[in-house]
Amino acid sequence: MQKIAIIGSRSFNDYNRLVSVLLPWLPAHIVSGGAKGADALAERLAQEHKLVITIIKPDWQQHGRAAGPIRNRDIVDAVDMVIAFWDGESKGTKSALDCALKQKKIIIVEDVSHG
Questions:
Q1: 113 vs 115: CA distance, rounded Å
Q2: Does residue 107 come out as left (phi exceeding 0), alpha (psi in the -120 to 50 range) or beta?
Q3: Which of 14, 27, 34, 93 has a beta carbon 3.0–4.6 Å from 57's, enabling a disulfide?
Q4: Quick one: how far is CA 107 from the chain centroid?
């Protein structure tokens, strides 16, 4: 089964939009970061569609300020493709997308800068 990272801006809260983007790719194993916004919507999607989900949270205690970028790399390492709901400003989402580009992963970016 394909593994898909669902990442994005913490301000993103349009569940119906997330579902419409993801539906063509389901079923899939979802991987996300456990944050607010797109990550939380990914958890809801997995629960409602009975999908396997892996949450990879940052280890702030072990890695300090590097924990976020390390978590983002770990998410990208674990998947076949990345779907990002990005407002164009979130540094964490950009970090994950840069990592996905370097790894030549399939990437879909939804522009959520206007709502």
A1: 6
A2: beta
A3: 34
A4: 11
pLDDT digits (tens, 9 = 90+) for 31-64: 999 999 999 999 999 999 999 999 999 999 999 9
Among 56, 44, 74, 53, residue whose Cα is nearest residue 1: 53
Integer angstrom CA distances of residue 38 from 63, 84, 102? 23, 8, 22
Confidence class for position 114, pLDDT limits 50, 70, 90: confident
Q: Which domains does the chain have, with CATH numbers?
A: 3-111 (3.40.50.450)
Confidence of residue 115 (pLDDT cuts 50, 70, 90): low
